[in-house]
Request: fold
Amino acid sequence: MSTRASERIGIYPGTFDPMTLGHADIIRRAAKLVDRLIVGVTTNPSKDPMFSTEERLAMVEREVAALGIDNAEVVGFNALLVKFAQKQKANVLVRGLRAVADFEYEYQMAGMNQQLDPMIETVFLMADVSLQPIASKLVKEIALFGGDIAPFVSEAVCRDVAARVEQSGRLGDY
Reply:
């Protein structure tokens, strides 16, 4: 029987604005590595979100439920990641990598997190090769200019984004 001290609790943090198939791939794979996976939906002051925190939480909860992963849960947070991890008693941070450009930033962040709490390990997962180019920022840009985002997000997220673009009236001209 697993004791709390030996339980592997992982956190996969992100803004998920919107959630992509790349995010879903990392969630599916990370859930196999830990006993409990917390998908942490957070804010990022340097990003201009398309969806509110509440909308992103609902979106991620729906998408994680659709994956059928029984050891994953979605939790919102607005704090230093290490503090959130400590509060959740997590001992693993999961970070998805798409390309070499992601690695430099993620490597620096992992080093800082290790300085803040050496008991929390960071694990990097490479996105599936077919999903590596997908980034939420690019998905939003494509949608805002009338492009097809269906290859990059679930059908439900595609509808969410289309509705938001229509609501905002931000569709670009060609």
Remarks:
- The chain has one domain: 4-168.
- The CA atoms of residues 28 and 68 lie 9 Å apart.
